[in-house]
Design a protein that fits this description.
alpha/beta, Rossmann fold, seven-stranded mixed β-sheet, 14 helices, 49% helix, 15% strand, binds S-adenosylmethionine
Amino acid sequence: MKHDVLDRKKAAALARQVGVDFGAALTVALAYIGDRLGIFKAVADGAPFTTGQLAQRTGLNERYLREWSATMAAAGYLDYCPRDATFKMNSEQSAVLASEDTTYFTAGGFQYAVACYRQIPQLMEAFRNGGGVPFKDFGPEIVEAIERLFHVGYETWVAQEWIPAVPEIHQRLLAGGEVAEVGCGAGQCLVPVAAAFPNSRFFGFDVDRTSVERARNKGEKAGLANRLVIDQVAAERVPFRDRFDLVMAFNCIHDMAHPRSALAAIQGMIKPDGAFLWSEADVGPRLEDNLGPVGRTLYGASTMHCMTVSLAQGGEGLGSAISEELARSLATEAGFVTLQRLPIKNPFHQVFLGRK
Ligand SMILES: C[S@@+](CC[C@H](N)C(=O)[O-])C[C@H]1O[C@@H](n2cnc3c(N)ncnc32)[C@H](O)[C@@H]1O
């Protein structure tokens, strides 16, 4: 087939966009360095600085810091004042890049992207021969990156909004119930939720050892050891039936090797009158619904991480675009009688309530 005649304006616009993406890719790598070496945090107070002062404050090489600061200023990550050749971080930049406890904090994304970049050779092998890149090969940084990207959201939303959206389960947890979270990662959701319901007992399950160890430490530090148990076990192998008032699975079913068996096991773990809260990224059912900046992050993360970790285990490789329609059909197949999307507005998640 022959191409249409080249539209020069369109070609130039696309070339410009690729140029912007190229710069963005370099910015991500340098922002990762700024995050990991503590440079963002060193300037988070908003005081103006020269790169000489920054070198003194951080103990890092001034020449690199000068070039790095220029990149960050060009990217809009720092402000630059030409009058006295100083840089500074404004409040918004500080919230997004340096304040781990604000909902704006997104610097975990740099860490996630770089952890994925490191696996490109293995990923190319999987493109050639199938299979995938195992979760553990991404190293502890991916666990930390996911925790940093999501913890504030879970601390803000789950105990205060998502669980209260199911009032009778909320009441049970206030009085004293039992809750499990599968794919609990580093405990970014489980630990704050357990802290919010002091009369209830909590169980976390995850297949990844680094995540389980991190979650246990977090639970111990929060003083929850006597009512929080975290086990390294796959969701589909959890040895409980008809046990929990609530099972939670956030942003993880799509990563699993066997999501259908995991959902069936979750259905089995819940008490007959219990509930399942399940979140996935908020996407439309068709590819064409998701073709934009959010979609590219989602499909990109899926190709480089979510799907490949599932395929690496001989799994289904569901991918991270789970629409409401697909979630409902998977839940029905797993034996849930109902699955409804809760009327919760959220910048990332759609939240489903399942009943058996
Ligand atoms: C993207 S992370 C999400 C972690 C956390 N739920 C969150 O939303 O931040 C996916 C997690 O699912 C875990 N996981 C993958 N397959 C699993 C399985 N079969 N059973 C339990 N956990 C699993 C991974 O180890 C990882 O911690």
